[in-house]
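From the pipeline queue, job 12 of 40. The input is one protein chain; the requested action is below.

Action: predict structure.
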Amino acid sequence: MYHTKSSEETVALGRTLALQLTAGDVVAFYGDLGAGKTTMIKGVAAGLGVLEVVKSPSFVIVTEYRGRTGVHHQDTKTPRTPDRTGNRQERQERQGSAEESKLPPSPFPPPSRGREQREGVPVYHIDLYRLNDGSDLESIGLDSYLEGDGVCLIEWAERAERVLPASAVCVRMSVDGAGRRIEISGLRAPL
């Protein structure tokens, strides 16, 4: 259980969560209107290397961003942990342009090949607030995002529970006085 006292703290928690995510992961956000889902997603996206301004995609349903390279799919049977090996110089070389973009350095080694090497991992920000029923999920092709090569960040996830993978990370948010109460489950390691 986490308690944040400001939007800055909520964004920072999102950045920390991003350190555990790799391509193919799904993060399901739950909470009432104004609970801070989009604010936390801004932090997750920033932690994944998204440089664009992240806004709620309520009217377009899905917004795709490009995250950093080095977030690659790993065997889901193996716990995902950041690569903390190597000396200081090696870590700085892996950082690449992270300092220039004012983002934390990637704790992941770069992928050895493939589209992600050239373009970065896709980050799909999906807002299901305006969907009416299950047929809407099919019409937007939600399953292709869930089974894709990116990281899916889904607001109003309760509208898609029947199709969410069992491995999804669940983030339940609520207003707690002037701050936010945030419960995160499904992580492979504590934040």
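Job complete. Confidence is low (pLDDT under 50) at residues 72-118.
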